Amino acid sequence: MTHPDAKSVVLAYLRAIDARDPEAITATLHDDAVFHIPGDHPLAGAWVGFDEILNKFMLPLMERFTPDAPYTVETRGLVAEGDTVVLDCVARSTARAGVPYETDIVSVYTVRDGRIAVMREYFDTQYFTRTLFPAG
Description:
This protein is of the alpha+beta class.
């Protein structure tokens, strides 16, 4: 069986995120995918499998944004070598409090059998927490 290259898989994942399409997102993730999200905030941790990734990370994250505001990911750079893809991007939306949200992110993906097996994401966790989880 021939699988798409790692870069194509990550680009398909990004298109699915922009479209907020859970089925398309699922199609890009390995059944036992692991997302590592750093920091000291309610969404930090290692989420294993699509159910955890969706229900403990993605959906709670999307609840922090205004529902009618787009959530976009602008790719600044994408480098792929073998099964590894490194993405440099900017995520933009509007937080529930009405303030603009814009953060630089670097994500490192490992693709196995044509689907994302591991994603490690690096971003300003203090800004993330301050903007999306305001005190009070």
